[in-house]
Amino acid sequence: MVTLEEIDEIVSKMTLEEKARIVVGVGIPGMFGNPRSRVPGAAGETHPIERFGIPSTVFADGPAGLRINPKREGDEKTYHATAFPVATMLASTWNREILEEVGRCMGEEVKEYGVDILLAPAMNIHRNPLCGRNFEYYSEDPFLTGEMAAAFVKGIQSKGVGACLKHFAANNQETNRTNIDTIVSERALKEIYLKGFEIAIKKSKPWAIMSAYNKLNGKYCSQNEWLLTKVLREDWRFDGFVMTDWFAGDNPVEQMKAGNDMIMPGKVHQINRKRRDEIEEIITAVKEGKLDEKILDRNVKNILKVLVNSPSFNKYNYSNIPDLNIHAKVAYEAGAEGVVLLKNNKVLPINKDTRIALFGTGQIETIKGGTGSGDTHPRYVVSILEGMKERNLKVDEELASTYSKYVSEMRKKEYKEKKEMFGESNLTSRLPQDFLNEDEIEKIAKRNDLAVVVISRISGEGYDREPKKGDFYLSDDESSLLKKVSQIFHKYERKVVVILNIGSPIEVTSWRDLVDSILLAWQAGQETGRIVADVIVGKINPSGKLPTTFPRDYSEIPSWNFPGEPKDNPQKVTYDEGIYVGYRYYDTFGVEPAYEFGFGLSYTTFEYKNLEVKLVNEKVKISLEVLNTGEFPGKEVVQVYIRAPKAKIDKPFQELKEFYKTRLLNPNEKEKVEIEIDLKALASYNGEVWLVEKGEYEVRVGSSSRDIRLINRFIVDDEKWRYTS
Ligand code: BGC
To answer: Which of 325, 434, 448, 501 is buried deepest, with most CB atoms within 10 A?
Structure first.
């Protein structure tokens, strides 16, 4: 163990250049003439300072699994990592233990592949369903986000490696992400956009935070002293270190002053045709008296305090063989709990002998996750078709082979060049879906019992999705396929199931009546096909709940001005909706969503009973019973929303303040649920202080934000509950 005194001593002996090298990364490994990383595919590395025994440390992405290259030049061995479900799906589990377990597995891969810090979790709020990176983020709700992130960080860090919360803060879109100026009120920041970070920092003590690309109320996040020093360090007492997002901001000296300890990827780089050497700029600024060396010392110490605990510092002898088999099981379990059953008209689960006609190219090109730094390189991805076959479901072979041929011919024809250049996983364009005519579908319907139609979407870093057909809406060819299948299968009294293999909401209202069941499988990572097959036959009883609202139509969302103005090249985005994000908006302003926050069906039913609520000291104590009243074993997510009294501060209709996922309950089995909420968590920010206003509070307990089963109340009779942070 290196003590704080020893760190002080080392820093006092460092030259200015050595200090500047600590606060600036080595550059993108393998690019701009930089040496390759010792872990190829890692996103960044720090400088070693040999004379003090400081080694280089390695940072790698990302939220759905460790992102490193699976193969290395001149090396026979492989370096695959597990592809876990995307973060939105992990949040759909509402299960802290699962998140912690996923974190532990990823932490082991980080450690055994020689990496020190995982650049995850990503925890920006789903402000708009079209943000291209929503799949990497958990939820529209800050409490769920913070709780999921805290559990995940605990898991990662239990392995002796670090987690890095990103992107701090209000980075809720990809359009012009490196320069957009996000204009948002202090209240919305504190209650919505910063809240998840605050919860995760206080509960799980992450090693690092990544400041975001965007500007926040006029200043780049990485150069924003209010954000990085006042809020993060003074109010929340964060004691890890802050790194920039890759190439973020425009002034290394301002970054140092604001409390952004490390600049990544750093060193000499060429961006926007400007050549920068941040090390030189920092040294010059100190020499010219423009940067106080004490600030540099502070930042160096913040970094070293953390990195002395890293595996590299402690010369950990990594194996390069993490237990990918065990991690595959955890990826499966996490996905199994994150599937959300949106509609079920007495179809699912099916009998194993049901003859299934599987439609949609997504059965073959199943999307495991999104693109960009949130991508992963697993050993395999089980497609939906493969999963069904592996589980011995009776899939129509002829139709499956028609699809296989169609996909391979289309890809060969259209993407030969692209595939050679970028590889298989980058074939993201959508193939036309409507290539079977009515007669063919008629024959298929006659020889099968059920139609299953897969609809897929992919998105990723660097671009947002669009409110148009083929993206937020079904394309004409998808609609046409769905209409034909629905009409013909129903004519023969066969049912139709849709599997949504997507990373973020799409429009469902215009077509959901055509089908009997909708299963939201999200992008479930490498085990997607197995998970889908097991849900369909009831080996898994869905227990996932939506962490984000499915709006009826894009025109009904609150963040109407996304992605900012001017429309053709947005420079500024104003969060006019304030705190009314997601269900806080839909519930308060009476707008009916397609599927509400917290929604998800099960193959069984649950009854809620005996709600008791007491305010004891500063704690709201809640107890109730949940009983499985149906015929399948299942888990339920008990959600606690609080409705605050009408008082001085404007409040949303209700807010999620706790949740609890039951154990697997057998039919007729019940579980007693005991929940405690700190009164402080009910405070609203009035621009100066956090305040719990007096009056009657409604405790609303239910199975979704709009399926409230029990209500009880408690009274706060004075206004003494004020908090500064
Ligand atoms: C992304 C980060 C990522 C970093 C390193 C950036 O472009 O925004 O999320 O961690 O690259 O790959």
So the answer is: 501
Its domain, for residue 704, covers: 606-723
Question: What is the 245 CA–ligand 1 centroid distance (Å)?
Answer: 6
Number of separate domains in the chain: 3
Q: Which residues neighbour 289 within 8 Å (Cβ) at sequence distance 6 or greater? A: none
Instruction: Check if the beta carbon of residue 318 is closer than 8 Å to that of residue 116.
Output: no
Instruction: Tell me which of 119, 133, 137 to substitute to probe ligand 1's pocket, judged by most ligand atoms within 8 Å of the beta carbon.
Output: 119
Q: Could you read off the pLDDT of 174-208 as tens digits, one per residue?
A: 999 999 999 999 999 999 999 999 999 999 999 99
Distance from Cα 171 to the centre of ligand 1, integer Å: 12
Ligand 1 atom 8: the closest Cα is on which residue? 245
- Nearest by Cα to 300 from 12, 57, 56: 12
Q: Are residues 302 and 343 in the same domain?
A: no
- Are residues 536 and 410 part of one domain? yes
Of the candidates 352, 453, 347, the one whose C-alpha atom is nearest the C-alpha of residue 399 is: 453
Q: Is 373 in the pocket of ligand 1 (CB under 6 A)?
A: yes
The pTM score is 0.97
Q: Are 164 and 59 in contact (CB under 8 A)?
A: yes
Report how far residue 508's alpha carbon sits from residue 512's, in angstroms, rounded to the nearest whole number.
6
Ligand 1 atom at shortest distance from the alpha carbon of 44? 5
User: Which stretches in the chain have pLDDT values below 50?
Assistant: none
Residue 501 domain-assigned?
yes
Residue 671 Cα, ligand 1 centroid: separation in angstroms? 43
Q: How many residues in the chain?
A: 725
Same domain as 152, residue 83: yes
Question: Has 245 been annotated as catalytic?
Answer: yes
